[in-house]
Design brief:
By secondary structure, this protein is mostly beta strands. The chain folds into four domains: about 5-80, no CATH class; about 110-140; about 160-225, no CATH class; about 260-385. The protein is about 5% helix and about 40% strand. It has helices at about 30-35, 75-85; strands at about 5-15, 20-30, 60-65, 70-75, 110-115, 120-125, 130-135, 160-165, 180-190, 200-205, 210-215, 225, 240, 255, 260, 265-270, 270, 275-285, 290-300, 310, 325-330, 340-345, 350-360, 365, 375-385.
């Protein structure tokens, strides 16, 4: 038999395990066909590191798994096999397990997570901004749906079903600044059952606090503002009552204004009378202005002719025949005939009104300064269109 054994060094003799040999070179043509060396008989000394990083060209011995045949392979092939993340088939593997979880996931700018066998939902990173969730299906009526699912078996009154919060936890000021600034939460209005899932939405904001509910939308569609006001920031916008029954000549169902304030009445009859006590108040609701107040003169100041009450807070409507009207509720110090009364008429397209005296058989005449007095006193109320 042609055989060759070369031994560089024999370092020592061990007691029961044979001889440890460095640099063994065994050649025997018969071994390749008539015999083998069992891997279990090979003693590899791992006490000394190779002293360098493993590179792609380094060789490893592996069993082929088919009958005990040992083969060599490169580190690069092992790296490809071990590092491969593709499952053997669709839906054929998971990332981590229920007891062996991964810690963190790092994705590059613009990285995506694609869901579904046909990648129909995409979660995409927008660099330095946030995330975008998008459907990959261009078919009509396929909205993006994000569901917050609660796993509770019994939902009772006032339990929070789901919640979205906004917070700046790294804000350097600390204290109030790092509390939850805003939130939207769904709250059970009653115990959920087979016949009821009544739920309200609560809109929460913070001022100097963790966000609390400021507005609530009930399951019946009722909107309740628990703190603050409803602000119409665009002129001409308001509350639309178009769902209500209409009159036969309805022209608008939009309540677009509400205002309260004061104005300064003045009495003019050729000249402006000298005023004593003067007060004027108004409330504007939509296109209607309601005024009330008091005017007390201290001197006629040479006034003569028809009296006008001026200084109205808004110019009256110029619509034909859209006159305003009202009356005094109390008056003293006048020079009118006992039994006569007067009313207030607001003319169109202006800021004045007239005092109409009911003193003639045919109707009224304009009240004049001669029918007033230095100390005339009137308390009044009227309304008009704008």
């Amino acid at each position: 038999m042609a055989s060759e054994i070369k031994v560089d060094t024999i370092s020592e003799k061990t007691s029961a395990n044979g001889v440890t040999i460095d640099g063994v070179n065994i050649k025997d043509s018969a071994l390749a066909t008539a015999g083998s060396v069992p891997l279990s008989t090979i003693d590899i000394d791992g006490g000394t590191d190779i002293g360098a990083a493993i590179v792609d060209a380094d060789l490893f011995i592996i069993d082929d798994g088919a009958g005990g045949t040992n083969r060599k392979t490169t580190a690069s092939r092992l790296k490809t096999y071990i590092g491969g993340s593709d499952p053997a088939s669709a839906d054929g593997d998971s990332l981590g397990t229920a007891s062996l979880e991964w810690s963190d996931l790092y994705l590059a700018d613009g990285g995506q997570i694609l869901f579904g066998n046909d990648q129909d939902v995409l979660l995409t990173h927008v660099a330095d901004t946030g995330l975008t969730i998008k459907t990959g299906n261009s078919t009509d009526d396929r909205p993006v749906i994000l569901t917050l699912a609660n796993a509770e078996l019994l939902l009772t009154t006032d339990e929070v079903i789901g919640k979205i919060q906004w917070q700046a936890p790294d804000e350097a000021s600390g204290t109030d600044a790092i509390l939850v600034s805003a939130a939207i939460q769904a709250v059970a209005e009653g115990a959920h059952s087979a016949s009821s899932n009544a739920t309200r939405l609560e809109f929460m904001t913070g001022a100097s606090e963790a966000a609390t509910a400021k507005m609530k939308l009930s399951s019946a569609g009722d909107l309740t503002v628990t703190s603050g006001n409803i602000v119409m920031s665009t002129s001409g916008k308001g509350i639309d009552f178009s769902a209500t029954a209409d009159g036969t000549t309805m022209s608008s169902e939009l309540l677009d204004d509400y205002e309260e304030g004061t104005w300064t009445p003045a009495m003019v009859s050729g000249a402006t009378m000298t005023a004593g006590t003067v007060a004027g108040f108004y409330t504007k609701i939509g296109n209607r202005v309601f005024c009330n107040g008091r005017y007390v003169s201290s001197d006629l100041n040479g006034a003569s002719g028809a009296i006008t009450l001026t200084g109205l807070p808004f110019t009256s409507s110029s619509t034909s025949n859209a006159f305003g009207w009202g009356a005094p509720t109390y008056a003293v110090g006048l020079n009118i005939t006992a039994g006569h009364a007067f009313t207030i008429r607001v003319e169109t397209g202006g800021t004045v009104c007239y005092l109409a005296l009911w003193d003639v058989t045919t109707g009224t005449s304009n009240m004049t300064a001669a029918e007033w007095s230095d100390d005339g006193d009137m308390r009044f109320g009227f309304s008009y269109m704008v």
